[in-house]
Amino acid sequence: DAGITQSPRHKVTETGTPVTLRCHQTENHRYMYWYRQDPGHGLRLIHYSYGVKDTDKGEVSDGYSVSRSKTEDFLLTLESATSSQTSVYFCAISEHGQGGSQPQHFGDGTRLSIL
Amino acid sequence: GQSLEQPSEVTAVEGAIVQINCTYQTSGFYGLSWYQQHDGGAPTFLSYNALDGLEETGRFSSFLSRSDSYGYLLLQELQMKDSASYFCATRSYNTDKLIFGTGTRLQVFP
User: Fold this and answer.
1) Would you say B84 and B35 are in contact if contact means Cβ atoms under 8 Å apart?
2) What pLDDT is recorded for position B108?
């Protein structure tokens, strides 16, 4: 299995608080992605990174920011959490871009509840 | 815009064959991928079709028809452990992003 670790695995917090989720990989892959998964919506891309300090927005990026200061770590931050951001968050990595041809490997997910 | 449509749920019995369809609308096309996700688990890559035709990997096969903007995942000799959600995905035009369908939940009964 690809070496991807998400932390924390579960978190409960209150509306308005900042939250940071961490994705750590040991594969030295260039590409890293953050998705959220909600019932009826499948996996939706929040942000992704194509290298250290290189990031781009996905389809549901509002309210989220990311940072990648090292190849192995990709952080997702909710500056001021809202109840609509309650979701399961998955990190994924890919050795190459053009994600259709190269498989993405997913972490085990973070279940985030915002009360 | 780009979208992928899948049936929300499919049911079958052990030992049977089931087909999960995916139709897509994309600006440009970069192949179709399939992922499996068990309840509470992470998605895992199953297969990828760049060209028309059938790709076989053990009990699972994936088919693509680019002229029909259509693909399917075929699961043979179904086992209880195949109960999971299945997602088709394709690359967003001229980017490194994957777009996923909303997923098909497969329930296998004894």
Assistant:
1) no
2) 97
